[in-house]
Amino acid sequence: MATLLSLLIAITSALVYTSLLWHVDRYEHEPLWAWWGVFLWGAAPAAILALLLEHGANTSFLRPLFSAQQWDLFEANTVAPLVEEGVKGLALLLLFLCSCQEMDTPLDGLVYGALVGFGFSTTENFLYFLSAFRRGGWGDWLTLVAMRQFVFGLNHAFFTSFTGIGLVLGRRFRHRLERWLVALGGFALAILAHGWHNTAATFASRQLSFLFVAWGSDYLGVFFLLLLIGLMWRQERRIIKRQLATEVGISLDQSHYNEIINFATRFRRQKRRPRVLRRLYQCLYTEAASLAFMRERIVRRPDKAAHFQHKLVVSRKQLDHCLHEIEKIENANITTA
């Protein structure tokens, strides 16, 4: 019974959090293969690798150098953050290197970082819940569920979002060394945030006030990311508005352009449309945003313009296909009316 409940709660909360995350990426929803691939990496390979590496550290030559109390602190604030952020960050690095067009903006980096974090916490929470039940029965189980799913439910997503943001921001620099330094800076922030939380949580077992320190610092960080998301929305809208303005009369007409750049208008019109048209218009929004971000990358990196030209042509064709399908259905609806 405890196993089934633990699994159900871990998966259900992950689905709730990821469904909220889906709406964070307002202008360009990520493809489902990348979305679920990153989530599942966090839930399976990353979680397994972390268990193996942390067990290896626990039995390594380093262990006898510390007392039991010192080792608990060192493992919490150094070993676990370094290992866990490293294995989660591998998914982001692979996606960035193999399909970098899926990580166009800092918001994409934040979303994918949070996504792999939610995947990782699903497996970790399930294992922690089982351990709590075996150790102290339903009382310990309920306490841990409340703490890990609700009080600290955003932690892994919060930590790893810094890694994703760092990878995307690094790409804006021309020199390879600068790019990797910025990416490593994001990774270092993820480790520091993770280490600070674990340190406060370790001391909380001895002094309850540290629990509030951990909670307060984590949610201060989450609040900072929410502010960052607002700024990213604003920046993305500016890019889309600027880059698609020159597409009016070529790939887009004025009415579609106005709808794409105005989120409130999109929301109102989508509510009134039938399901088939909603899906096609969502395709239009996504492809238009992809085209705008591709054009912005060419502006930022003119030395890479030749590399992006083919992708620009493909993006325009996909946009034309969405518009053609929309026009076909809307004309059919007018005829039947």
List keywords for this structure.
globular; 12 helices; 337 residues; 2 domains; single chain; 0% strand; mainly alpha
Integer-rounded radius of gyration: 23 Å
List low-pLDDT spans.
none
Number of individual domains? 2
What is the percent of helical residues? over 70%
Largest sheet: none
What does the overall shape look like?
Answer: globular
Secondary structure class reads mainly alpha
Number of helices: 12
Describe the structure.
- The chain is globular, with a radius of gyration of 23 Å.
- The chain has twelve helices and no strands.
- The relative contact order is 0.09.
- α4 (68-98) crosses α6 (155-170) and α8 (209-245) crosses α11 (275-300).
- It has helices at 2-22, 32-43, 45-58, 68-98, 106-151, 155-170, 176-204, 209-245, 254-261, 263-272, 275-300, 305-336.
- The protein folds into two domains: 2-237, no CATH class; 246-336.
- It is 84% helix and 0% strand.
- The chain is mainly α and 337 residues long.
